[in-house]
Automatic annotation (TrEMBL):
Residues 474-532 form the PucR C-terminal helix-turn-helix domain. Signal peptide: none annotated. Pfam families: HTH_30, PucR. Residues 13-132 form the Purine catabolism PurC-like domain. InterPro entries: CdaR-like_regulators, PucR_C-HTH_dom, PucR_C-HTH_sf, PucR_dom. This is PucR family transcriptional regulator. It comes from the Bacteria.
Length: 537
């Protein structure tokens, strides 16, 4: 099965813009069910090196070469790269495809298509990419519908068997839940699957505990811990009665998150409930729950909103603390602390990500800051009681987004969650306002872009090189100077330096960096570079 999805070469040739070019398949006619994941147009001889596989390559033949050897090499390289098909437009370069080209395509099993009429390649690209996107969207819609049914089963009091039955109905095949070492936990067959799941399991695993058939989809169910505890179980979909497709993997991946919560029920019901609320808040943040249906689902989870706005809050723990357990204790402690607030609170946990999302019902926008103070204090109390802190580890970060209605709540939770990651290491404020950290969030999103690292190196590289081998260190002086917006008297007081010593250090910094620290543009650039340095390797 194709895990990435796409459309077939046959479907691409049936689209209006390619059909108008009068396509003729001259080789690889039995391979037209290959998946097209992308379209590329090019005329260079070494174009194979630019491709990743699965592309429909459009060309007028200018890069094919003039000699048979060049043409054979061109086709062989494309076939080895694994492209979906080669489409050549006849015209000024070729009025018919060379025999060497056609013969090599046939020998390589590469679909080769010639167009007898000119077509705009940009229109071909646009139409096929639109078809691919629509195909992906249709798959996502199907997978989300299965996820909705699984969630409804869990909210209705169901458990693992109900979720597996939903998946079995959807795939028309038996579905299994196994331990990480391959022992059967549950087996299910839906009404559409005629196979006996236990018999299938026996044939699947009998004497071959470590082998997984090629016609199976296997998805890890997270365990919330580190190391061997990272995987609590595995969900296995097996093609017995019907083939499996990409949408079945998507549905299984979504169901795995729900199963992870259910499997905790035998140990900690309180944590299970909080995980369920965390799933709801995460689904809301990621747009999987429509704002109009969110209030009813929140009421099922015990959230009784008043008439005021909703305040999204997210706490994030350091990654090294997320596998320590203690989440039930945290939930209990935070709930006790927030009970005195007198406002509705929907508190969830996402242990795998080390995230605690909340929605708080305010009476009025004006109480946002006061409520944020109380919520942040309650969250930190919960972290302390649960033992989710460690000497030397970064402190928990609490981020508060803008208040608003249900239509804004999901975006607020998503904004707060991303900002909480970007804010780690900034300091230890009780809470951060997400609206004031947009620059930090932007730099964090660009953290892997090479231009950001290059910018940091250009701006402060010489200073970092100096501090690596010389004393006194000058970077703290620059950081303090910028933190005080260039006010030298305040900088000198915080660093416990006399003014002349500070002036000498600033002059040395300016000399090393080749810049004027009294220039506002230079100060802005240096400030951004120091912020960006937190997010670059």
């Amino acid at each position: 099965m194709d895990d990435q999805g796409g459309i077939t070469v046959q479907r691409a040739l049936e689209l209006p813009v390619l059909r108008s070019g009068l396509p003729e398949v001259v080789a690889g006619g039995d391979r037209l069910r290959r998946t097209v994941r992308w379209v590329h147009a090019g005329e260079v001889p070494n174009i194979a090196s630019l491709l990743k596989g699965g592309e429909l390559l459009l060309t007028t033949g200018l890069g094919l070469g003039t000699r048979p050897g060049e043409q054979r090499a061109f086709v062989r390289q494309l076939a080895e790269r694994g492209i979906a098909a080669l489409v050549v437009e006849l015209g000024p370069r070729f009025d018919r495809l060379p025999d060497a080209l056609v013969e090599t395509a046939r020998a390589s099993g590469l679909p080769l298509v010639q167009l007898h009429r000119e077509v705009p390649f940009v229109s071909v690209t646009e139409e096929i990419h639109t078809e691919i996107v629509n195909h992906h969207y249709a798959l996502l819609r199907q997978a989300e519908e299965v996820h909705r049914r699984c969630t409804a089963a869990l909210l209705g009091g169901g458990g693992v068997p109900q979720v597996l039955r939903v998946l079995s109905d959807f795939t028309a095949n038996p579905v299994f839940l196994e331990t990480p070492d391959g022992q059967l936990l549950y087996a299910a067959e839906g009404g559409r699957s005629p196979a006996d799941p236990l018999q299938v399991w026996e044939g699947l695993r009998g004497g071959r505990q470590q082998d997984t058939p090629r016609n199976a989809v296997v998805v890890d169910v997270p365990g919330g811990g580190g190391g061997t505890a990272a995987v609590r179980a595995r969900l296995v979909l097996l093609a017995v009665s019907a083939p499996l497709s990409p949408v079945h993997r998507m549905a299984a991946e979504r169901a795995a998150g729900s199963l992870a919560v259910v499997l905790m029920q035998a140990r900690q019901e309180e944590e299970l409930a909080a995980r369920g609320r965390g799933d709801f808040l995460t689904d809301l943040a990621e747009g999987r729950i429509a704002p109009e249906s969110a209030p009813a689902q929140a009421r099922v989870l015990g959230f009784r909103q008043g008439d005021g706005p909703l305040l999204p809050v997210v706490m994030r723990l350091a990654p090294e603390l997320t596998g320590n357990g203690g989440w039930a204790v945290l939930v209990r402690a935070v709930s006790e602390e927030l009970a005195a607030l007198g406002v509705p609170v929907l508190l969830g946990v996402r242990p795998v990500e080390g995230r605690v999302p909340l929605l708080v019902g305010l009476r009025a926008e004006s109480e946002r800051a006061a409520v944020a103070d109380r919520v942040a204090a309650a969250l930190r109390t919960g972290v302390e009681r649960a033992g989710l802190e460690r000497a030397g580890a970064p402190p928990a970060v609490v981020v508060v987004a803008a208040a608003g209605g249900w239509a804004a709540a999901g975006a607020g939770l998503r904004h707060a969650a991303e900002t909480a990651v970007a804010a780690q290491g900034l300091g230890d404020l009780p809470w951060y306002d997400a609206r004031r950290l947009d620059i930090e969030l932007l730099l964090w999103r660009l953290r892997e872009h090479p231009d950001l690292a290059a910018f940091v190196e250009r701006a402060v590289g010489p200073l970092l090189a100096h501090d690596a081998v010389s004393r006194p260190l000058l970077l703290p002086t620059l950081e303090t100077y910028l933190a005080h917006a260039g006010r030298k008297a305040e900088t000198a007081r915080e660093l416990h330096l006399n003014r002349q010593t500070l002036y000498n250090r600033l002059a040395r910094i300016g000399e090393l960096l080749g810049t004027d620290l009294d220039d506002p543009e230079a100060v802005l650039s240096l400030g951004l570079a120091l912020r960006a340095r937190r997010h670059t390797p």
